[in-house]
Specification:
Elements (H helix, E strand, L loop, with lengths): L5 E10 L20 E15 L3 E25 L4 H4 L7 E2 L2 E2 L3 E2 L4 E2 L12 H6 L15 E21 L5 E6 L1
Antiparallel strand pairs: 1-2, 2-3, 3-8, 4-5, 6-7, 8-9
Amino acid sequence: MQSLYTGSVVVNANNSALNAAPFSLNGQSVPKPSSQRISVAGNIGGPLRIPKLVKNDKWFVYLTLQGSWNHSASDRVGTLPTLAERSGDFSQATIRNAPITIFDPSGAGPFPGNMIPTSRLSFASLGLLKYFPVPTSDIALQNYSIGISQPSYSNAVGVRLSGSVSTKDRLNFNTQ
């Protein structure tokens, strides 16, 4: 004997604890960002019956519920001023392994030893430095890495009414 009403439930869960470690572009160890995804869906359906009001085996009603909860993870890398550069010392700064020269904007030529004197550092720039994170590695390029997790949630409800109008014609109503 078949049940009048049928349904199903689906649960899908993923967690970053089971993922491999991310690839490092600069050879430094990169922490694995945390992420997870949980999706739940269920449906139930059968003949449209409302006790003492409707008992019709020609019309069927279906209800679907879905929910998804995600925390997606991503790695962000960037280049920040090294600790020495934050204090005006560019003596170790290079581009493509070639040393660079820092010039005095007043036209007096290059700064001696590629070091900007403390008295020439902008007060506003020094004040803004506290809002920049310090590098996470000692290399010159891509010396900062952070894993971020962004949450997102979605839920959906769907209802379908389907029935026979005549022996040849069917009528369906869907909403979500």
